[in-house]
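Appendix B, example 12.
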Amino acid sequence: MAVHAEDFTIKTKGAVHIVDISSKVADIVRSSGLDNGVVCVFVPGSTGALTTIEYEPGLLKDIPRALEIIAPRNADYAHHMTWNDDNGSSHVRAAFLGPSLTIPFRKGELVLGTWQQAVFVELDTRSRRRSLICQVIGE
């Protein structure tokens, strides 16, 4: 079993900006030289998340709307009182979505569904520069 680690950086616009990272993760898997295994992508921080979606215009509107129902931006969050900031909803949303994503790969290619892409979801209230960590494990 071998491990290949590689990080990459993305720039986000804030406020539920969804970034397709599929091709970057696929490139890292290919550069690892491994044929079969899994890749784990992780975001350090508590206001970003990783998931898979069909990356299309309708869902790019539906996901922010659904997150607004789950954790409304203008709700009263104790986090705001603790830190004197405005991103309590960002933390709650990130906790529901999660900070990591694991994708299998075979013959050096990600095993994703036909309409499935790996995405990073910026949940903070401002633009950010995010470093994402990839661990490729396989043989």
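The first strand starts at residue 2 and ends at 11. DSSP finds four helices and eight strands in the chain.
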